[in-house]
# Entry
Amino acid sequence: MRRHRHSLLLLAFLSSLLSLDACSGSNTDNANTTATTTVTPPATQVLKLVPRPQSVLDLMKQRGEQEEAKPSLKIVSPAKDAVINGSTVEVKLNLSGDLKGYMPHKDPTSGKGNHIHVILDNQPYEAYYELGQPFELRNVVEGKHTLRVFASRPWHESYKNDGSFQMATFTVKGGGNANKPTTTAAGQTMANNNSGTAPAREGKEMAASKGGEVDPAKPLLTYSRPKGEYKGADADPIMIDFWLSNAKLKGDGGEYQVRYIVDDDDPKTIDKWEPVWLSGWTNGKHTVRLELLDKDGKPLDNGGYNITTREISVVK
Ligand SMILES: [Cu+2]
# Structure
């Protein structure tokens, strides 16, 4: 008897559930929608700091004492405050110092090698491999410009010794066409125009830009990496690397910090001048912003170069 009453109660309860379900079609739809978004959420990116990857450690070991090199660069051309007629600016560099075998050169098989990062104004750097010939900045627009160069390794980590970095200012008269589209091909385009007998030179069509009002005596942050497109294993981890002039970071006994912001993530600070490796990038485009901060944690301007944002893309 008692058991029968329980069954009735249970039945009543179940039917109420059923009727609730039956008359709440829209609720069910909502539930489904919610479930769908939960199953495939937009890819969220959680970046984490990781040690230098083993592949790079292996390269460093192979390179031996080259890792301890102290390359010293000199900008031969353009000469300091030079006025250049025409839109092509020849960059000539002199490399000296304690090289320990360090020599820029692109290995034809791997397409990699030591190289110099060449930066016009605050554009992304171009890689310059064969110093025996000038590197041509092509289609440089009229006006005042800055040039920054520093020695780099095959995996684009810069040498951070005194003398590895140099900066020059110059002026272009009768420069290139600001509306001319820049070369879209990734990397460099070798010169093959004009004369077929002219030696192939490294160079690049430059986007229109002008030099910042940079004080070379003041703290200066030069953005180097990341840049461009990262594919497969190269995208995990990705290295942040930069050059610092006249600014020692807190962790190195100074008072400055470098701040990086990836996409809309919370800002993070770097207290030691060394590359930072980040893992966990999602497919697609990302922005990376580097800023130089003073002792109070405030951005420190120098000709607009101390805050730089670049877009990179990750293809996994
Ligand atoms: Cu590089």
